[in-house]
Amino acid sequence: MVIGVCKVTLSIEGAFSLKEKRSVVKSIIDRVKARYNASIAEVDMNDIWKNAVLGIACVSNEAAHADRMLEDIVSFIENDGRVILMDYSTEKIYV
Questions:
Q1: C-alpha distance across the termini of the chain, in Å
Q2: Which residues span the domain enclosing 88?
Q3: Which residues contact 13 (CB under 8 A, 6 or more apart)?
Q4: What is the pLDDT of residue 46?
């Protein structure tokens, strides 16, 4: 079993309040969950309205599948016009 983990740092230039930031982040989280069936949550910078850090996890029986899935999710988030992808890192955990 392989667990793929990804940390994504986003900049939300169009947000001018926490309410606007949370609206954008919640939308991205809901869309990723529905499309990729992956676990995703905001994990850092909760009270900063211009930035967000998302944690993403998926489980697979092959490392290549977990890598591909995380790459697709990062690409999906990057193509969302409301946010700018600042940085991301991935890791695989073998169980």
A1: 5
A2: 2-94
A3: 50, 84
A4: 86
What's the whole-model pTM score?
Answer: 0.90
Q: Token pair for residue 42?
A: 């905001």
Cβ contact 87:9 at 8 Å: yes
Burial of residue 11, with CB atoms counted within 10 A of its CB: 0-12 exposed, 13-18 middle, 19 or more buried = middle
Using alpha carbons, select from 41, 42, 55 the residue that is nearest to residue 3.
55
Reading the block at residue 38, the tokens are 């992956």
DSSP string for residues in 10-70: EE-TT--SHHHHHHHHHHHHHHHHHHH--EEEEEE-TT-TTEEEEEEEEEESSHHHHHHHH
Tens digits of per-residue pLDDT, 74-95? Answer: 999 999 989 999 999 999 999 8
CATH classification at residue 60: 3.30.70.1120
Q: What's the total number of domains in the chain?
A: 1
Locus of tokens 């850092």 = 44
